[in-house]
Amino acid sequence: MTERAGQRTREPSEGLDHAAIGRLRLVITRLHRQMVQASSEQDLTMAQLSALARIDQYGPLRLSELAALEGVAAPSMIRTIAPLKEAGLVGKEPDLHDGRSFQLTATAAGRDTLNRVRRERSALLTRRLDLLTPDQREILYAAVPVLELLVGETVPPLSDERSDRR
After folding, report:
1. E strands, the chain, in order
2. pLDDT exceeds cutoff 90 at 41
3. Segment 98-134, tens digit of pLDDT
4. Is domain 40-150 classified as CATH 3.30.300.70?
5. Quick one: which of 57, 59, 52 has its CA closest to 102?
């Protein structure tokens, strides 16, 4: 603990289990790789899939709004979106509030692509979850909000009707 302006604050690594952190990092990496391999859309980058999912979830969006949601600069987002537009997965519509700007939308092909990727990756997770006991599954489900916090998402806890949109 350190003192800062009369307040005690915790050091960033204080009380953390570094071996468990290493195991968590490794399992997340391996699971991510397996999910990517389970998907037929391996020609799309993670950045492209993430941008497409954000547009589908929050769209229509201005490029600047999408860049902010993804935590990148607008020029990076332009490079991410260009192949999606060329592939017909993302469309551009005039911004009704600002004639100089446009909004990005997910096309039917884009939504189909996302749905296919989600189905394929969910199928992998379903097969893996089938190997767990009911108690192990409940522990994993209870950890989802904590994992969401790790990636900076603040979402309500999962209900009994778990969504497979993510």
Report:
1. 2-4, 7-9, 90-95, 98-106
2. no
3. 878 899 999 999 999 999 999 999 999 999 999 999 9
4. no
5. 59
Reference 116, options 38, 61, 62, 47; nearest CA is 38
Answer yes or no: are the C-beta atoms of 121 and 40 closer than 8 Å.
no
DSSP-assigned letters across all residues of 11-59: -TTTT--HHHHHHHHHHHHHHHHHHHHH-S-TTS-HHHHHHHHHHHHH-
Q: Residue ranges per domain, the chain?
A: 40-150
pTM to 2 decimals?
0.71
The token duo for 152 is 């900076």
- Do 112 and 44 form a contact (C-beta atoms < 8 A)? no
Q: Are 102 and 62 within 8 A, CB to CB?
A: yes
Q: What is the pLDDT of residue 65?
A: 93
Q: Which amino acid is at 18?
A: H
The span from the CA of 71 to the CA of 66, in Å, is 8
